[in-house]
Amino acid sequence: MLRQMGRLKDARTALNDVLAHHPGHDEARWNLALAACMAGDWKEGFDAFEARRTLPGLCVSPGRAGLEKEGAEWDGRPIPGRRLLIQHEQGIGDAIQYLRFAAEAAKLGARVTYRGPAHLLPLAQRIDGITTAVPLDQPAPRYDVWVPMMSLPRLLRAVTPQKLSRSGYLIPEAARMARWRARLAGIGGCRVGINWQGNPAYGADSERSIPLALFEPLAALPGVTLIALQQGAGREQMADWAGERPLLDLAPELDGDGAFIDTAAVLPALDLVISSDTALAHLAGAVGIPAFLALAHVPDWRWGLEGTRPVWYPTVHVFRQRHPGDWTGVFEDMTEALGARIGVHG
Q1: 20: Cβ–Cβ under 8 A, 6 or more apart, which residues?
Q2: With 0-12 CB in 10 A as exposed, 13-18 as middle and 19+ as buried, what is 322?
Q3: Cα 222–227–231 angle (5° rounding)?
Q4: How confident is the model at residue 337 (pLDDT cuts 50, 70, 90)?
Q5: In Å, how far from its chain's centre is CA 35?
Q6: CA angle 194, 35, 319 (to 5 degrees)
């Protein structure tokens, strides 16, 4: 609760007090990881992140137990010519964020295989450093060493902003990019892709998802076309859209043969992406597209509490709530910033 109030120093003190008396208390260590990462102490945060291994639902994925029994876990040292299996954890956004480290593993000589959800594999194979991608629900291919995906930054000692920051490591398919550029060629002005709703099954979704109606002032800016990339939950809000210009809804045409595989190819044809804290924000950052990210007053651990540029993605500009629940202020700031970007003043 202290962390959710933004009192990170107090939260870390309380959690370290718990651990001083109960060193094996993994729930306290996990919460310490989140607070430390939010404070920008990446070394302590990623060390404490290992506590997730014993907590239900955080590190478990199909076939994980077999890996633990049958193969050595990678320790981060050079492995020239050896086969490294990266085992998926958690969500799609997490995978897009953490698979940036596949390229670092490849530099150490690894031939990298990612084992993840089947619908994510076409996209994963577009990420720098990944040689092959295989589905979670099938037996693992032959490998020499393996690693849980979210242990990569600790093993690679990626604990500074310089080592964490990266963009352009996901390269969309050239043919798809060409197709989408042609599809959008007739739209002049500023093309802005948007999404507003995350997975409602996520416990903190109510703090990150945004009513679509708040995007309406952006549509009033001259020359701006808002392009809906939202899929799944939240699309029902489009029926009540009252913006000055209609939305261009691309979602029904996207990603029929893999998660975000078309969306990634659309992004280079856009001038900007505006997103709530969902996988699309990670995708824009990974592709290297300018993006505005709307964040809650106390956001997810990875975005920190301060600053306009997140550590992870240099092309992403964050807009933070001034106080809890203040999405109106966020969109006032974004409307002003977009207006400045396209040369609208006053």
Answers
A1: none
A2: exposed
A3: 155
A4: very high
A5: 18
A6: 25
Residue from 259, 213, 233, 64 nearest 148 by CA = 64
Which residues lie below 8 Å from residue 206, measured CB to CB, with a gap of 6+? Answer: none
Residue 346 has pLDDT above 50, yes or no: no
Is the pLDDT assigned to residue 345 strictly greater than 80?
no
Residue 5, C-beta contacts closer than 8 angstroms, at least 6 positions apart: 298
Residue 141 is encoded by which pair of tokens? 């291919």
Angle between helices 8-21 and 26-38 (to 10 degrees): 150
Closest CA to 234 of 203, 265, 278, 192: 278
> CA–CA separation, 115 vs 133, rounded Å?
6
Burial 231-251 (b: 16+ CB within 10 A, else e): beebbebeeebebeeebeebb
Residue 147 bridge partners (DSSP): 86
The answer to whether the beta carbons of residues 254 and 277 sit under 8 Å apart is no
For the entire predicted model, the pTM comes to 0.95
Phi and psi for 191 in degrees, rounded to 5? Answer: -100, 120
- Report residue 70's pLDDT band, with 50, 70 and 90 as the boundaries: confident
**Length of the chain as a residue count:** 346
Classified as helix, coil or strand, 55 is coil
Check whether 203 has a pLDDT greater than 90.
no
Tens-place pLDDT, residues 258-317: 999 999 999 999 999 999 999 999 999 999 999 999 999 999 999 999 999 999 999 999
Rounded to the nearest 5 degrees, what angle is found at the Cα of 25, between the Cα atoms of 21 and 31? 110
Using the structure block, give the residue that is written with the tokens 């007739």: 186
The percent of residues above 70 in pLDDT, for the chain, comes to 99
CA atoms 118, 124, 126, 129: torsion sign: negative
